Amino acid sequence: MRRFAPLGIVLCVQAILLFWRLDLLSMWMDERFTYLIAAHPFGEIVRLVQRDIHPPLYFVLLHAWTRLPLPWQGIAALRAFSALWALAATLLLDSLWTQRWKPGRRWLAVSLFALSPCLLLYGRMARSYAMQTALAILAAALLWRWLRDPESPVRDNLGAAAALLALLYTHYVPGIALLAAFTVVAWRPLGARRAGVFLAVVVAGYVPWILTLYLALKSWGQASNFTAKYTLTGNVFTEQFLKAGYGLVSLTIGESFWAIWLALVPVALWLVWLGARSYTGGGRLLAFLGLAAGVGYLGIARWVSFPFVPARLLWLLPLVSLAMAQGICRLRAPWREMVAGALALSYLSSAALYFRGENYLNPGYSAPLREIGERLNREAAPGDIILVDDYNTDSTVRYYFSGRTPSLVLRAGREEKARARLAGAKAVWVVRNTRDISPGRITTRLEAEGCAGRQRQDTFLQPYATWQVAVMDRLGMARPAPQYVYQVTVCR
Questions:
Q1: How many angstroms separate the CA atoms of 20 and 194, rounded?
Q2: Considering only CA atoms, which of 385, 487, 392, 381 is closest in space to residue 429?
Q3: Shared domain check, 315 and 281
Q4: Which of 334, 361, 388 is the last residue of a domain?
Q5: Looking at residue 488, what is its pLDDT?
Q6: Are residues 334 and 373 in the same domain?
Q7: Which residues contact 156 (CB under 8 A, 6 or more apart)?
Q8: Rounded CA gap, 17 and 304, in Å?
Q9: pTM of this prediction?
Q10: Which domain range does residue 441 map to?
Q11: Number of compact structural domains in the chain
């Protein structure tokens, strides 16, 4: 009984963090997609996600979840499904990876994962990130079990094939990464025949979705045209440094923190390296997991822009937590206690900032879309017009509009339509990011045209952290660097 007491405490704390105020943050763009898809019947879900080249398992299970009598409504119910998967990931990590470790190391590793600010952020989103993480823990453990016993027949390892297929039907990247890494590492110890049979079993199980996978890979190959629109540096090489750095910060200290905790990032990475070196079971596990991590990063780095790298690599967080715990336990006292204490303080402050909606590395996640919608529903009249910048603003804000006042999303080719609507409006409302990245600054120009001859009032929302303002000023992203993220302008 005493063995399970620490796990129960960790799970209780994790559950409180995951389930408390699930509707805290406004729904953002990708969650809106999930929200819309989950409302359709099973057959339509498969067709719709196939059109968008998403695997279907997460959405199908989420639809079944929403049919249950739940204590949550709307987006909170969808986020609760992810929170359950995050709890399941903690249980799987302990039962499959750390259960035989010494108690101090075991509970440190489990706590680093379960209470990670990164998991707190992405484990509460209505996306498949937490589900991917749980299934990746399961699949990697079953594949590693076979690598430790290469003589066991394929039929005894069909569970690994089933876990891999479940992962592939949830998201391509972690499934392909683990399968590719296992195939490379296992080819010699298993032999070509058994490795080939296992690969054939997995491919056969994925035949119903193989064409969609092909289309996804085709889109991935053309990703340079897509990601070029969302680069911050404008250089393909420096952008990769930004992506990798952004991902490492998130996986170690999360994405809502005080600037002082950035000093912990190199320490955490050193601990991961130190912990990985301390593994005494040979290099096969490190080769397997390291190759999977490399393939996974290559899979997403070409496709997504830098703010979305950590979400797609959340399934690597368990590996980071295990290695970091190993590294901490290799330190001598009092350094061991000091480092563990610093990480604990960092986690605690990050959780506090998360629930306060402050200091987000990606402010889009904490955007006050609901608050903006509530204000416009109160103050905007039917004869007004609301313009929503879509170049650097989450147009999901329209989900929170009552529909009483007409609105228009500013996209390429809609400039003349917007001008026509401005001319006859009693009042013009503009919802935008303070940083105008639209082509030719069309958002600012249309705002100026709509406000010409009218009385203007600006309201600024969601302040940047001081260090974020300093970074933007240093990089020359805007001069002067904005103090706030969102701006609502009304001209009467």
A1: 47
A2: 385
A3: yes
A4: 361
A5: 97
A6: no
A7: none
A8: 28
A9: 0.94
A10: 367-491
A11: 2
